[in-house]
Each structure stands twice: as C-alpha cells, then as structure tokens.
Amino acid sequence: MEISFTDMELQIWSIHWIAMTALVISLAMSIFAVWVGFRLSNGIYNSGETNIVAKIAVTVFNLCVAWFLLIWWGYMEWHMNGVANAFSELSQAGTSISPNAQMHLDASDPAAPFTMMPNLVQGLFLGSILVIQLSQTWMTKK
C-alpha cells in the first residue's frame, strides 16, 4: 500500500502543527498560572491573618485562570474540528486523503461550532482545582 500526500494535505498538516505549537506554549502558561494560584491560596491559608482584599484578589485571579483554561480547551477542540473540516472539504473535492487524515476526520466533528463547555473530565478537573484553591483562600487554618 503506497501512501501519497497531496500538497494541500501537507499544508493542512503544517498549519495544524504550527497551531499546536502555539497551543502547547499557552498550555504551559496556563499550568504555570494554576500553580501560581495554588501558591497564592496556600499562602493565604498558612498566613492566618490575610485581609479581605487579598482574598478577593486571589479568588478573582483563580477564577480568571479557570476562564482561560476553558477558552484553551474550547479553542483546542475547535482547532481540531477545523482541521477535520479542511480534510473533509479536501476529500469532498475529489482529492484522496491519507489514512491519518481520515482517522483525524473520523475522530472529530467538522461541523461543531466553538464552545467553552467542558466535557465531564475537564469539568471535574477544573472543578477540583477551584475547590482546592478557593477552600484554601476562604477557610481558616485550624
């Protein structure tokens, strides 16, 4: 079985991996921001004498980081669906696509719009992060 890539498919893959590189960089920044949120909330928890303004600021920071993670997850899914849509359009135009492109197309939803609604695992993960951060921010140390 000989696999041949068209120039168009190679361009789609190239653009896809360039965007994935940018997404990895933004994921690293998001992970760092989550870590900073944990450090801030842990500092408040261990200090015992933090004023209300600091608690509100840390809460706002952690909620903003959660918002950024929702945007990141939404954009990642939207990008993957967009790449699948490009492969779908290429295939419908009569151009043969590689088996890898077909697998990407089969695993995605090319017609799906952008959404920030997390799936179950993402929601549980983000919820657990927020529960830990906000409970450390607002509960007093015993």
Verbal overview:
By secondary structure, the protein is an all-alpha fold. The chain has one domain. The protein is built from four helices and no strands. The chain is elongated, with a radius of gyration of 21 Å. The termini are far apart.
Q: What's the helix and strand layout?
A:
Blueprint: H1 7-47, H2 52-92, H3 99-106, H4 120-138
Q: Count of helices? A: 4
How big a fraction of the residues is strand? under 5%
Taking the sheet with the most strands, its summary is: none
Radius of gyration: 21 Å
Uncertain stretches of 5 or more adjacent residues: none
C-alpha geometry: elongated
SSE string: HHHH
What is the count of β-strands? 0
Average pLDDT: 92
Total tally of structural domains: 1
Q: Alpha-carbon distance between the termini? A: 68 Å
Q: What class would the helix/strand composition place it in?
A: mainly alpha
Give the proportion of residues in helices. Answer: over 70%
Summarize the structure.
The chain has helices at residues 7-47, 52-92, 99-106, 120-138. It is an all-alpha fold and 142 residues long. The N and C termini lie far apart (68 Å).
Structure keywords:
0% strand, 142 residues, 4 helices
